[in-house]
Every structure is written in C-alpha cells, then in structure tokens.
Amino acid sequence: MFDLPSFNIPIYVFLFVYGAYMLFYVLYALFNIYHLVRYGVYGFGLYLIVTIFTGGTIILVSGSVFMLMEYDWTYPISSGTAVDFYNEDLFPKL
Amino acid sequence: MMRLDQLPNQRADERVVLFLRRHWFALLSIVTAFTLLTSVPLLLGWYFWNVVEAWLQHDVIGPVIVIVGSIYFLSVWLFAFLEFTDYYLDTWIITNERIINIEQQGLFNRTASELDLAAVQDATAEIRGIWQTLFTYGNVFVQTGAEKSRFHFKNIDNPEHVKEVVNALVEEDKRRLSALGAGARGKMKTVIK
Fold it and tell me: What average pLDDT is seen over chain B?
C-alpha cells in the first residue's frame, strides 16, 4: 500500500481565481464602454445603455459578494476530507 | 462621441437623410441567446433546488459553486453587451452628399469609410429567405465605378426604400454638380482602418 501525500489548502485560493477574472472583466467592460462613448451617437440612448450595463454589473457583483461573505474562507481542503465530498446528501442518485 | 448634426468632415449644406443600423432582428438574436444562457441554468437550479441547496451549504463546494456561477453570469452579461456594442456601432449614414459606412468588427477593429454620391453607379436591394421576407429586412449594395469597391448595408430595415432613397439622392447630386459644372468627381476613401 502507499500513502497519499497530505495537503492542506485554505479555500480562499479560489478568491485569487475570482479576482483575476474580475480584473479581466473590469478591463474588458471599461474598454467596451470607452468604445461606446467614443464612437456612439450622442443622445439619451447612449447614456441609458451604459447605465443599464453598469447597473447589471453592480447587481451581479453585489449579489455574488453577498453570497460569498457567508462562507468561512479559512476552511481547509485537505486530502483527509476530500473523500467526504462524495456522499448521498450532496450527490443523490437521480 | 459622434453627433449627427456635426459629422466628421461635414460639408456646407450637407444634411443627414438616413441613419441606419441593422434591423432589430439582429438585436433579437442577442436577446434570445442571453435569455437562453441565463434562464436554462436558473431553471435547472430551481428544479434541482434540494441538491443545489445542499451544495451551497457545503463548506468547500458552496464557495466554488458561487464563484463559478458568478463568473458564468458575468461572462454572459459581458458577452451580450459586447454583441450589443457591435450591433450599436455598425452604422450607415446617408447624407445628401455622401454615404458613410462605419463598421465595428469585434472590440478591436473598426473601419469607417465614406463614398461621394457622385461616385455611385447603382444601388441594389436584396431580400433573401423567409425571415427577411417576413420582417422586410435585407441588404443593399452600392456599386461604384471601381470594380471591387461597393458598400454593403447589412441586414437593414426596408432595403427597397433605402435603395430608392440612394438612387434619388445620386440623381439629385448629379443634377446639382452638373448645374455647378463640376462633373462627377466622386471618390471613395477609407478614413480610419
């Protein structure tokens, strides 16, 4: 028999991935808004479009942050507990 | 920001006759894709709520689900906005002196060209297929004297009417130039590429 190497990673590492994505999102969104404002036709519609997009983004990000705040981010993923993820409560037979 | 009353290189007595974008059917395809991409996961989550609730309460799976879900919905929102920007910035402006064609290709390519009405030889309207026939949209091709240079108004509303307007403006422009004794001096040029 052999022993699996033990590891212990806090779940906040997922936040780094999320942070990297948010950086990409913000850059892309700002670039897109710049395009609209720079080349769009002047008028109320243009401001409405930018406001709707920004509003939608704020709602989505706030909702996500609100849900993410519920979790304990210091909780570790360890080799010992990894097998506990698979059980009938989490993955019931369909 | 572009203003229709202050066009780039606007000439004296030049006025905008038509301002065109693609038909709203193009917008409908973006809205349909957005609705499907958001509603399907939400409906699945609602149908399997007992399982999803157990996942969300788990100390490790819960945060992963929320992060993946957030990235997914933000990506759909961004994708829809990018597609809308592409639609919104593709415009054709027909004035009493020239045609301006502005095309946004993705986020990093933009082409703006203009064509003097005096250079136009003919305009052709094209309506193809059941959807274009039902919703009265299609293409207009504006042909110049040069063999390969032609403007393509893609999926615009009422192409027949646009073709007639272009032809009428071309005739009017030719009469005006003849009266001035200037002759047909039209040219097509790309302003930004």
Answer: 86
- A93 versus B88: the higher-pLDDT residue is B88
Q: Which of B71, B101, B108, B191 to mutate: most A Cβ within 10 Å?
A: B71
CB contact under 8 A, A67 and B4: no
Chain A residues whose C-beta is within 8 A of a chain B C-beta are 11, 14-15, 17-18, 21, 25, 28-29, 31-32, 35-42, 46, 49, 53, 56-57, 60-61, 63-64, 67-68, 70-73, 75, 77, 85, 89-92
Set of chain A residues whose Cβ sits within 8 Å of the Cβ of B78: 25, 28-29, 32
3-class secondary structure, B47: helix
Q: What is the pLDDT of residues B16-56, one digit of tens each?
A: 899 999 999 889 999 999 999 999 999 999 999 999 998 89
Dump strand ranges (E) for B29-171.
91-95, 98-105, 109-116, 120-126, 137-144, 150-157
ipTM associated with this complex: 0.84
pTM (2 d.p.) = 0.81
